[in-house]
Amino acid sequence: MKILLIGADGQLGFEVRRAFGAGVMPLTHKDIEVSDPAQTAAVIGSAAPGAVINTAAYHSVPECEKNPETAFRVNTLGARNIALACVQTGARFVHISTDYVFDGRKPAPYTEEDIPRPLNTYGVSKAAGEFFVPVAGRYYIIRTSGLFGIRGCRAKDGKNFVKTMLLAAKTRPVVEVSANVISNPTYARDAARKIKMLLEEDAPSGVYHIANSGPCSWYEFAREIFRQAGIAVEVKPRTETEEAEGIKRPLFTPLASVKTEPLRHWKEALGDYLGEEADFAKEE
Fold it and tell me: Of 197, 253, 252, 227, which is closest to residue 16 (Cα–Cα)?
């Protein structure tokens, strides 16, 4: 099956390319502007893929607040335009979404059946994008959270939380990390492999939560990063509020995988990632 991958230069996109191998046709923002319906239809139509995987997003929370028009153009209209193009080609549509579609006020992990109630522009634009995805007919809405991978996040200068913590430990004896923001750290490679499995098994259309098992705070995650990396650094807990600098963020967004087998625990995934990161650094 030919896979058309939108957002191929991102953290998850990189792992999707590795998971699918030669069957992937990678596209970046230079190749396709998802907010342009005519161009999106033309690119997808000419490629005639069996599936389109959209990992592209405008996902900086502060930038989404500053530029809501861009957020909705990319995250909402982009999803709609891809879905409409998939209708014309008969391709399945895999759309990546986020835990930020929830408000964090549920006292238990969120399942695929929970109704989105986003707090900020980013979350609203992604939830609105989810609304259009079923237009494709055959689709998977993949919600994930706390991604970390070899490529790092393009919007964060190639970093992710793990890389940021390891760099911080080189210059600071004490690192302060949020202790009351709870989610699921997710190894991008595990998420990509799960997406591949859903497509290969022709799983039913719908919403799927794909995140490594074991909710934790960023503070707990940081401590485990340093423990596994063998780095001696003091980690101090910091308490966050739901709203800071005029921007609301959910504090509790663990994702429960009810409709598919959950991924392995994030601690095991972190160990594999750190080993791969070390090997990757040697090759550079």
Answer: 197
Domains of the chain are 3-281 (3.40.50.720)
Catalytic: 273? Answer: no
Q: Which is the catalytic residue, given 122, 139, 187, 208?
A: 122
Residue position matching structure tokens 């238990």: 108
User: pLDDT tens per residue, the chain (284 residues)?
Assistant: 899 999 999 999 999 999 999 889 999 989 999 999 999 999 999 999 999 999 999 989 999 999 999 999 999 999 999 999 999 999 999 999 999 999 999 999 999 999 999 999 999 999 999 999 999 999 999 999 999 998 755 555 557 899 999 999 998 889 999 999 999 999 999 999 999 999 999 999 999 999 999 999 999 999 999 999 999 999 999 999 998 889 999 999 999 999 999 999 999 999 999 998 765 555 44
Other C-beta atoms closer than 10 Å to the C-beta of 168 total: 17
Where helices occur in 35-187 by DSSP H, the ranges are 37-47, 61-66, 68-72, 78-89, 121-132, 161-171
